[in-house]
Amino acid sequence: MKTIAIVATGGTIAGTGEQGKAVAYHAGEMNVSEIIESIPMINEVAHIKEYQIMNVDSNEMNPLKWITLANTINDIIKDDHIDGIVVTHGTDTLDETSYFLTLTLNTSKPIVITGAMRPATATSADGPYNLYQAVCLAACDDAKKQGVMGLFSSTIYSGRDIQKINNYKIDAFDQKDFGCLGYMQDEEVYFFSRSFKIHTFQSRFSQKKLETLPEVAIAYFYAGASSQVLYDMAIHHQGIVIVGSGNGNYNQEWLSAINDLSQKGIVFVRASRVSHGIVFDDEIFDPYQYCIAANTLSAQKARVLLMLALSQTNDHQEIVDIFNEY
Ligand code: SIN
After folding, report:
1. What does the pLDDT look like over 5-17, one tens digit per residue?
2. Closest ligand 1 atom to the C-alpha of 28?
3. DSSP letter (8 states) at residue 176
4. Which domains does the chain have, with CATH numbers?
5. Is the CB of 12 under 6 A from ligand 1?
6. For the whole model, what pTM was predicted?
7. Which of 50, 34, 179, 27 shows the shortest CA–CA distance to 117?
8. Which helix (H) or strand (E) holds 51?
9. Which of 74, 118, 200, 220 is a good FRET partner for 248, with 20 to 30 A between their CA atoms?
10. How far apart are CA 76 and CA 117, in angstroms?
């Protein structure tokens, strides 16, 4: 039988509230061992090792906690007796953590991240079943070399592309126009596609232990937005991700601020406030090509990649290449 490590970080899957009710609860309260005890059939799938490394609402995650999580998993996964990892996490910022782990874990063993939309004390809590299936997926041979995967509602998503699309239904995730990697029925795993982007053991960001990350901010563009926010952000940040309209667009005032600040060394990336789609290079809104296209990454995922890129290089073309490869 395989051994799977469950690395718990908190979230609604560990949330408690009024017995039976699904709202008005506190995330990150229950210890993971209590959740595992509520799923006896998990022991028929794998030997479980538990690591409660934090117990927080995922809105309390931050780059230092990401680094702690990645370094802990990189240590655990070196153990030959561990066959795969399941991370339990709040759903609110799970898309950011899953991409960070996609880029920083140096392993070909399966890594699955899951959570819940209903607290553990709700009637029909979704967490225990998600956790059961996540363990089954982490124990599956076909899941090796797939990088980080998200598992929700019997659907397997790529850690790079998973995003939260609903804040009250239990089927709360998708991965943009890429559908999903596969599905599960109880413990059975069915893969239908895979991510071709560089991840985990192939990633240049997983080869060296991280200690800190450069500061990168996100600026949201809207009709009439003043460019002052960009100048303010530039004081304390090395990079800024623009959440532009349409194809990552903005007005002439923002264009001149971006050109000005780029020449002072601030690195800009253009993502889009449109939930689906791709940001391509654009000769009209970015005529000098100062702003790097986020491609299919959301702004918050582009921020993760830009922080990691800036931790290794300030070379503009190298960062462009990183955004094309990852
Ligand atoms: C959180 O992200 O920790 C709270 C919300 C959730 O897990 O669904």
Report:
1. 999 999 999 999 9
2. 3
3. T
4. 3-202 (3.40.50.1170), 214-325 (3.40.50.40)
5. yes
6. 0.98
7. 27
8. strand 46-56
9. 200
10. 27
